[in-house]
Design goal:
Helices cover 45% and strands 12% of the residues. α5 runs parallel beside α7, α7 (119-133) crosses α8 and α13 (274-285) runs antiparallel to α14 (292-299). A hairpin with a 2-residue loop joins β6 (146-147) and β7. The chain is of the alpha/beta class. The chain contains 15 helices and ten strands. The strands form two sheets. An eight-stranded parallel beta sheet has the order 1-10-9-8-5-4-3-2. A two-stranded antiparallel ribbon has the order 6-7.
């Protein structure tokens, strides 16, 4: 597949990269539920420059995950060029540039959404990445509706002449990254301003919301993120709803089985403490079952697969209807 952004059927429905979330196990689970694209956790170009082992770990993937795209964040065009060369050498199917992360630790160093405040630097970063990968890898971008006084329409006008494959826009401001309704008008406007694909983020938490977003904006796809917490089947539901107007709802028994599958995948990860990150993920799966709080209190302390299996068994015994 030369360019997954262009070659795959539209609309694209996929899980966006999330720090501390989209590790190997999470990606494999959402792949089972039909995510069109996969992204590892986004990676610092500065950390890559200094040979961080953590960065190497984050950029490890399996062939079965294709198409898989690496997302980079930072602020220095030269380091972006260097990092893009490494991504290309690692065999990824694309490179994505993060102009959208609102996390203070990223923005305070000029990266993520803060880059949107310097349109000249934004263009220089994109040009540096394109120069590194040439025609071998598609380049895409993720951003937000605005950073302080700079609106995404200004960004679109700045980058419209660049050979980019896709722009994903999260319809919320930097200052209120997860609050209130997503601004879909800015995504609709962007679709008219640039010649490449536009995907929407921020209003795909249900199949109904995803369809409304696609219909209203005319965009080419939906990137989902926190909506998959405890619901990795969301993408499958969205696709079914778009095709038929209805969608499958998992039973509590199926939810617990998916939870166990996720835990087993995590146990196979080549990391020092695979169950540290998985604890919160396990808690998301059970949030709607009776007495969830008491089981979550146990899950936040698990250190082995067997401990997770024991909690699931306890839930099954205490709630026979599951």
């Amino acid at each position: 597949m030369k360019n997954p952004w262009l070659d795959l059927p539209k609309p694209l429905i996929f899980v966006a990269p999330m720090s501390g979330i989209t590790n190997l196990a999470y990606r494999q689970i959402v792949k089972r539920f039909a995510s069109d694209l996969l992204f590892p956790e986004f990676v610092s170009i500065d950390a890559m420059h200094y040979g961080s082992e953590k960065s190497d770990e984050l950029l490890t993937y399996e062939a079965s995950e294709r198409p898989i795209i690496a997302q980079l964040f930072g602020a220095d065009p030269e380091l972006f060029h260097e990092a893009a060369l490494k991504v290309k050498a690692l065999g990824f199917d694309g490179v994505d540039i993060n102009f959208g992360c609102p996390a203070p630790k990223v923005a305070k160093n000029g990266g993520g959404c803060a880059l949107l405040g310097d349109l000249g630097r934004c263009k220089a970063v994109i040009e540096a990445v394109i120069a590194a990968v040439g025609n071998d890898l598609p380049v895409s971008v993720k951003t937000r509706v605005s950073y302080k006084q700079v609106h995404v329409r200004d960004f679109c006008k700045t980058i419209a002449d660049l050979p980019i494959s896709n722009l994903t826009i999260h319809g919320r401001k930097f200052e209120k990254p997860y609050e209130g309704a997503a601004d879909l008008d800015c995504i609709k406007e962007a679709k008219q301003l640039i010649p490449f694909l536009v995907c929407a983020s921020g209003n795909g938490h249900t199949p109904e919301a995803a369809k409304y977003t696609l219909d209203y904006t005319g965009c080419d796809g939906i990137a989902v993120a926190r909506g998959t917490f405890g619901k990795p089947w969301l993408i499958k539901q969205i696709k079914e709803y778009l095709a038929t107007g209805t969608y499958w709802q998992p039973t509590q028994a199926e939810i617990l089985e998916t939870m166990l599958q996720h835990a087993r995948l995590a146990s196979q990860m080549d990391t020092e403490r695979p169950f540290i990150e998985i604890r919160k993920v396990m808690g998301w799966y059970i949030r709607d079952i009776p007495n969830a709080a008491q089981y979550r209190a146990k899950l936040v302390r698990v250190s082995t697969l067997e401990e997770i299996e024991a909690v699931v068994k306890e839930i099954q015994i205490s709630t026979p209807s599951l």
